[in-house]
Amino acid sequence: MIYCLGHNIISPLGEGSEQNYQAVVAGRSGLKLYTDRFADVEPFCASIFAEPQDFVDLCVRTAQTAIAEAGIDATAKDVVFILSTTKGDNLDLITPAKAIAKHFGNMNSPIVVSNACTSGVCAQITAKRLIESGLYRHAVVIGCDIQTRFIVSGFQSFKALSDEPCKPFSEDRRGLNLGEAAAAIVWSAEPHDGWVLEAGSIHNDANHISGPSRIGEGLYRCLRDVLQGVEREDIKLLGVHGTATLYNDAMEKIAIERAGLQDVPISALKPYFGHTMGAAGVLETIMCMQLLQHGIFIKMLSGFGGVNAAIRLRCE
Questions:
Q1: Which residue in 93, 82, 182, 88 sits closest to 123, CA to CA?
Q2: 183-218, pLDDT tens digit by residue?
């Protein structure tokens, strides 16, 4: 197991994990309709920063706060930077990761995890494996994506976007909303009071390039793995992907029921932040930590290409 030493979120709802938590508790959403954000793009509803952001700067800013809270020396040889993103900067994923690590004076080769919407959870599982193997003592996991014309028009081509705030698992849901954010968690081998990442699992059901398994096979297998050794009644919160798209919501429901978790309260945060892509798994993990002060929660994500991932965290 690995221990959370610090975390941070920067989103249109605020700077800092606490600001974002308070915004959600107050019912504030970053979603609004954009009619002229990008040229030749139909109106879309999203949570986007008021001013255009630089990808590397955004990652650095959120990591700085998390590292300061953790109190680690980011230049040390036993620290690794892991970047979770689905697009990165101009489609070049490794260059911004190197720039981020270099900013902090870290000479280790950074790791980029780009596995569709599961990237943020997969990045945390990667941190767990690297730390538990003894290769590193600390891992700075950063999730970030910035929306562009390329991304928005791509989702519109799938007819997947809603022009109003998304409604996960609702009968009248109309699709997803995109979002921008940067979030960071410092995971460590050092025992620390607070949240512990106990288990993680990744499965690919290879169903379709953009359509999830209708029976939720890959996600069910992830849930089955992270539930080993834990009673269902001990799970206090289930952080779902909750995109508000027809097939994803239906698939998640089936996987949840197959895993016997249908009575567990769920956290579906995209009506507040939109789908922040590479940041989603990191941001939503932090939010679940904030929402549930003690107990056990599971965070699960699914994405294009049949990828699925889940993690289990505990705080006594």
A1: 82
A2: 999 999 999 999 999 999 999 998 878 778 889 999
Spell out the domain ranges in the chain. Answer: 2-188, 196-315
Q: Rounded to 5 degrees, what are φ and ψ at 217?
A: -60, -50
- Tell whether the model's pLDDT for residue 312 goes beyond 70: yes
Identify the CATH assignment for 196-315 out of 3.40.50.410, 3.40.190.10, 3.40.47.10, 3.40.1830.10: 3.40.47.10
For 29-87, how does the pLDDT look when each residue is reduced to its tens digit (9 = 90+)?
999 999 988 888 899 999 999 999 999 999 999 999 999 999 999 999 999 999 999 97
Cα 239 to Cα 228: distance, rounded to the nearest angstrom: 18
Cα(44)–Cα(24) distance, rounded to whole angstroms?
22
Domain 2-188 class? alpha beta
Count Cβ atoms below 10 Å from residue 141 Cβ, excluding itself.
29
